[in-house]
Design a protein that fits this description.
Structural class: alpha/beta
Largest sheet: 7 strands, mixed
Shape: globular
Number of strands: 9
Order of helices and strands: HHHHHEHEEHEEEHEEEH
Distance between the termini: 46 Å
Helix content: 40-55%
Number of helices: 9
Strand content: 15-25%
Radius of gyration: 18 Å
Length: 288
């Protein structure tokens, strides 16, 4: 709690360098993260250490935010996150000013930290004055202790080890109708759902044939939903957000537009991608 996020980023790099001296698996995991970004996503050479230590940094940020929420006995309002939440909320408010009943799915991409993304959603919820927001999460429960204090007012629709996965779409649709806003990570990589093969759709990403999850687009066609993609950044100890234009999910071009957002994020901030180090990423998926 007494360590700044800038210091935490430095600790992550030093920690990775120290352990990599004697842990071969640790060292090659970092090298794979960097070389994948360099070869596939044009990662700059000067970001090599940030990419290699990305996994360590993610876990440190997760733990810091989790502890901060528990100590605060509610939501810890970090200034960066307050500003991020307000920016996202302003976009949604603008959409509702023109179309009051429009349904919006927020789609944070997998960057920086899952708990940081949840904290940003809290700030969006607060800025819009919403009592509840549902979020589809594939993260295991209670990794750093009880998540209950970290997620007040957020309905977690888990897919990891959840016995009710088959009704996930129905539960998300109900929550979306109730609150007009829900959260779903539309950039979930096919490799991450090996136990439950994804229903994917074919797209082109950075000039290569790729596949992304297709379920969100079916829901969008049925319910006429607007998707708002964005991703968090973390540089010099500060959080920020990159917002993309909203995507009409009922439009036939929606899958490719989402793929373009994912591709742009990978080329701009691959070093903070939570899936870094998996060369297949969006290049292959089982099809059912």
């Amino acid at each position: 709690m007494h360590v700044s996020f800038l210091t935490m980023a430095r600790i992550a790099k030093l920690g990775w360098l120290w352990r990599s001296l004697f842990d071969v698996r640790w060292r090659w995991n970092g090298i794979t993260r960097y070389e994948t970004g360099r070869d596939l996503f044009s990662l700059d050479r000067d970001k090599w250490l940030t990419a290699m230590a990305g996994g360590v940094q993610e876990r440190l940020i997760d733990r810091r935010i989790h502890v901060g929420q528990q100590r605060s006995e509610g939501v810890e309002h970090l200034p960066d996150m307050v500003a991020i939440g307000q920016r996202i909320a302003d976009v949604i408010a603008g959409i509702w000013a023109q179309m009051p009943k429009r349904l919006v799915i927020l789609s944070p991409l997998h960057y920086v930290s899952q708990y940081a993304n949840v904290l940003a959603v809290h700030e969006v919820q607060r800025a819009l004055g919403l009592a509840n927001v549902a979020i589809v999460s594939g993260v295991p429960r209670d990794q750093y202790g009880s998540d209950e204090s970290v997620t007040p007012g957020i309905e977690i629709l888990h897919t990891h080890g959840d016995g009710m996965r088959n009704s996930l779409g129905i539960r998300l649709a109900r929550s979306l109708r109730r609150d007009r806003v829900a959260v779903l990570f539309a950039d979930a990589a096919p490799y991450s759902m090996q136990k439950y093969p994804m229903d994917t759709v074919e797209v082109s990403m950075l000039g290569r044939p790729s596949r992304i999850h297709g379920g969100i687009f079916r829901m969008g066609q049925i319910m006429d939903v607007l998707l708002l993609p964005y991703y968090l950044t973390f540089e010099r100890g500060r959080f920020d957000v990159v917002l993309f234009d909203p995507v009409e999910l009922a439009d036939a071009t929606a899958p490719q537009r989402v793929a373009d957002c994912i591709g742009r994020a990978l080329t701009q901030h691959y070093e903070n991608n939570l899936f870094a180090g998996y060369p297949t990423l969006y290049g292959f998926a089982p099809v059912r």
